[in-house]
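Annex B, item 7. Sequence and structure tokens for protein A, then protein B.
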Amino acid sequence: MLNNILPVIRKELRSYFNSPIAYVVTVTFVLFCSIWVFYLQTFFAANTASLRSLFGIVPLTFIIIMPAITMRSWAEEKKMGTMEVLLTLPFRESTLVLGKFLAAALLLLIMVGLTLPLPLLLARFGDFDWGEVVGQYIGVLLLGCAGISVGLFVSSLATNQVSSFLVSLFVLLVFTLISQVNLVFSLPILLARVFSYLALGAHFNNFQKGLVDTRDLLFYVLVCALFLYLNVKTLVFKKW
């Protein structure tokens, strides 16, 4: 199966880096993180070597970034007329979906990896908890992968890139902030707990503090598995 996935990954990575999207998204994210750390959160005034403030805002940035990364994945195939060709290749639908997912995850890894100079610089100004930083980066990657899986599923349903981007943005906005509904409306306790559990952002809170909770980790893995499964089923339906 791996031999079949690798060509899909290479194709997707070429698609990303042959267009401006990978460069624009990556540069924008790294610049935003740098500006946030050194200017917007008044790092030097606070006199603290911590990235908690930055990682507190990352879930909101991913609401825009993940749809931007995934909007072309399937919608572009439809536009170029290559969707039918892909579905007739001797690859299982799950292979195509996993290939696109892993390619987007690699782009995410590159994008997040380019922010590593930030903690290295901050460590020079005070005691730095590297265990906390590792937990934060693990959380960012898991959150990003969950957003990618949602974006890929939406792209498989969308007719064009714009609709894919907008619908993915809306879905991620809802699932990131759904736990905040209880602050506006007085919900029954059970419903409030359900909303809190479904919130992508709420499960990131422990990671923001550098705490790797297996329940939060499992939640993001389940989100990825669910939406990748739905993506596969969408392709199977289109094939028939």
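Protein B:
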Amino acid sequence: MPFSRSRRPARGPAPVILFCCFLAAAARPLDAQPATESQPNRLNVLFILCDDHRFDCLGAAGHPFLETPHLDALADSGTRLTSAYVTTSLCSPSRASILTGQYAHNHHVIDNYHEVDPNLRFFPQDLQAAGYQTAFIGKWHMGGDDDQPQRGFDHWISFKGQGTYWPDGHGTTREVPQTTYDGLNINGQRVKQNGYITDELTDYAEDWLNQLDPDRPFFLYVSHKAVHADFVPADRHRGRYDDQPLPITIPSDETLHRGAIPMWVRNQRNSRHGADFGYNLADFDPAVYYRRYCESLLAVDDGVGRLMQCLHSIGAADNTLVIYMGDNGFQFGDHGLIDKRTAYEASAKVPLLFHAPGRVPAGKEFDGLVAGIDIAPTILQATGSKPMTSIDGTSFWTPLCQADASPLADRTLLYEYYWERNYPHTPTLHAVLGGRYKYIRCHGLWDKDELYDLQTDPDELVNLIDAPEHQNRVAEMNRRLWEMLGQTDGMEVPLLEDRGPRFPWRHPDKTDAAEFHDDYFHRSEPPRRP
């Protein structure tokens, strides 16, 4: 059987000691192969998605003060994937890529305001077809403000748009676009939100786990609102990090100019998504904002501990694949920017943890290049379900279980972001991810492309695009970019009608507009005929 039921867990934060049982279970020898349909005990799956969780905000990743004991325990008893990215760093496109296995140019969810194509197939539909009990609990936000039940899920709990941290809005310093106070949609019925959303979603997830049919496998997708801006910690956590410094160095404009960083990046510094005029607030302080962000993550970590405790109490701990992932990263002054959308590491790289006792190695780090588009095929292989067709991602289940990243050694991934009229300072971007170097191409704007050596310049502050010794590499990565676009039907820029508010403003007393790069003033001579 998928699991044997025992007692119902008690509510409340889970002590870290209660998670120790998972460490022992995960330490058994790795002799299991990836699941197949013929195996009687098919893996259950708990997939936890955290909003805007950047890759380095994790105790297990060496964070200087953030406390994430339950996520750290998950990493210790499983595998932490250290080269995990999203292929579009924006809420709705990233979520659509996770569910469909497709790049944004194929699923066409390229902003946060348009509904998803009703003909797109989501991988939970394949789990349903394989006999799984399925549930979605949390933030849907895959285009528009719709929170109606979606295909692939037997049980449904969500809210419109961004929802809200607290039903009375307390703790909020500004209203985020698409904030709603309409409560929850539970299987098509409107139900009021009673408390702090992170805790309440965990409550509902526990309730669903405790009423499952133990003779059938399950798939539970918990999608947190946290830690989306505006960051509102649980009352029990507010102020915990008031005395902590910002561990990110915000580069000066001179540093960016000296590093040949594109003009659009430097100009964005004085904008809604810039460190000088963040969210169009004249007194914006990235350090304060970062502290609230870290405090908001604490309840997510509590929730992970509670759900792991619940799996143990219902007898499902040893046969459940637990995945924790961020839907995109977040910038806190990196490159002088805040928020996301860019192809830089702080924006596009995410935490990704896999835990499956006896299948996924315990206490390991896996450096193979993986992305959100790979989640669907990986889960389907792990559960022995029929694979999806017409997808861009690939399963990494076998390399992960074998602790062997070599099959992914030469892999490259496409990153894409499409210009939004709502936030006009970030242009359409394409990038090649994978290996030591990252190549970023700016589309539709007179500016520099980018090449970074992630080994010597992990903060991506020295643009090598014009370096003579790298011109062959630039040409090859540009060729690879167009090859990937051609192979994945990405040669046309997807367009959608304008929707939502616009935020084009600059502050008259903040950073001046960037000057043109020096080489713009030196015309290259055309070749002469002999």
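Comment on protein B: Residues 6-10, 12-39 have pLDDT under 50 and may be disordered.
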